[in-house]
From TrEMBL:
<comment type="similarity">
    <text>Belongs to the class-III pyridoxal-phosphate-dependent aminotransferase family.</text>
</comment>
<keyword id="KW-0032">Aminotransferase</keyword>
<dbReference type="InterPro" id="IPR005814">
    <property type="entry name" value="Aminotrans_3"/>
</dbReference>
<keyword id="KW-0663">Pyridoxal phosphate</keyword>
<dbReference type="Pfam" id="PF00202">
    <property type="entry name" value="Aminotran_3"/>
</dbReference>
<protein>
    <submittedName>
        <fullName>Aminotransferase class III-fold pyridoxal phosphate-dependent enzyme</fullName>
    </submittedName>
</protein>
<dbReference type="GO" id="GO:0008483">
    <property type="term" value="F:transaminase activity"/>
</dbReference>
<dbReference type="InterPro" id="IPR015421">
    <property type="entry name" value="PyrdxlP-dep_Trfase_major"/>
</dbReference>
<keyword id="KW-0808">Transferase</keyword>
<dbReference type="InterPro" id="IPR049704">
    <property type="entry name" value="Aminotrans_3_PPA_site"/>
</dbReference>
<dbReference type="InterPro" id="IPR015422">
    <property type="entry name" value="PyrdxlP-dep_Trfase_small"/>
</dbReference>
<dbReference type="InterPro" id="IPR015424">
    <property type="entry name" value="PyrdxlP-dep_Trfase"/>
</dbReference>
Amino acid sequence: MVWSNTRDKQLQERAHQVIPNGMYGHESVAMMPDDFPQFFAKAEGTRLWDIDGNEYIDYMCAYGPNLMGYARPEVQSAIVEQLARGDTMTGPGPGMVELAETMVSMVRHADWAMFCKNGGDATSIAMVAARAYRGKKKILVARGSYHGSAPWNTPGMSGIVPEDRAHIIYFDYNDLDSLTKAAKFAGDDVAGVFATPFKHETFSDQSHVDADYARGVRKLCDELDALLIVDDVRAGFRLTRGCTWETVDVDPDIACFGKVIGNGQPISAVLGANKARKAVESMFVTGSFWFSAVPMAAALATMKLVRETDYLKQLVTIGTLLRTSLDAQASQYGFSIRQTGPVQMPQILFDDDPDWRFGYRWCQLAMKHGAYLSPYHNMFINAAMTEADVAKTLEATGAAFADLQANRTTLEPQAKLGVLKRLLAS
């Protein structure tokens, strides 16, 4: 099939008439390379089809929620069965209790669970819990880390006033001295410390958490009687079957999960220790759709797959194969790339590419050959991916590298670089 985007362009034009900017949020293609499709018609397993019928191996996985493969049969069956009984009702179904029991049994630090819809819901609940715990106000957050798009944490500052961030104090990730200084600045008013499982900001290299740093954060929170919150929304259950900081033998007081737990259904979770139970019981947080039964059924089916399959081994195997193959391919065509972070969540950036001309062109060409990659955001491996998918991906990336090699001296700087710099600066 010859790649085309006629229908997508037409729909984007219609969208601009009735939707601000034509699309909003992280799934807008405004910052993606030119011609990236905005609208999709179908997803199954590892594959995604846009509304023009173009087929892609999807390495964004809906920006994370696809863990087991799109439309995984076991999850789809649970969805259909629960939908026939009821979804959003006057109260939750019994699956809510079963899901809470299941997740508490799977995550080492957890004694209780609450459910909501998005990662931002979960992190905001955790923030409120930290303040309710001892009546303190200050929240320590790593500079540049992403915890959602509420006024207290959104990376876009339009409409945000200083009061929204009045009690947020920033420190440098993986830097215990920076964190200690932030805590000293807050005095005796530290309510909680937010931590991501590893450094996974967009537009930059990823880096693993240092075990001594993680232990230092835990020690500091204990000394201050503040809550340690791990934001596992992006990485939870992709790196391990529990909280990601269990891999460095550190337990938080609260962890936030989302993205994958319903394999695409809208559900997130806050899992906490008894230490924070009274604080959480004193709060009022809710949402009309937080108690819907279908996403909880999907989550139960997904957690069963997490417990009983070798999906983690598959993620690592495929992620490692992709990483080593791309390193060799880039070298073959005379390019140097940086692949950082866990292999299950690849981040790929070009060396010697200050104006992004290589990274953007490479992703654009790979997309038109059937591999959907991002030039600036970490990507995701899902458990449905196979060696055949990697081989097909390498055909697409090989064609992209060949084009770069042939045109490397004539490529123009990325036109969106100014917007990128403004985002980075903010």
